Amino acid sequence: MDELLYKVAITLIPNVGPVTARNLISYCGGVRAVFEARKRELLKVPGVGSHIADNIVNQNVLGRA
Fold it and tell me: Is residue 20 part of a domain?
């Protein structure tokens, strides 16, 4: 998928603001990698809890983007 789609999708994740989004992108190595990461990896990112990780892993935000 296009990089822009992933950038839009990350803004649609509930309870993810600019700081958490930057942390996710930095930790995972890119915005696309955020959506390819496993829940266990996402939970290591500061500010990311189980609910946010579930929203990313289930990728329901990609469909809305």
Answer: yes
Rounded to 5 degrees, φ, ψ at 45 are -80, 130
Q: pLDDT exceeding 70 applies to what percent of the chain? A: 98
Query: What element of type H or E holds 39?
Result: helix 39-42
Q: Note the pTM of the prediction, 2 decimals.
A: 0.86
Nearest to 6 by CA among 32, 28, 26: 32
Domain that holds residue 36: 3-58
* CB contact at 8 A, 17 and 35: no
Name the pLDDT band for 32 (thresholds 50, 70, 90): very high
AA identity, residue 11 = T
| Dihedral (CA of 12, 55, 63, 21) sign | positive
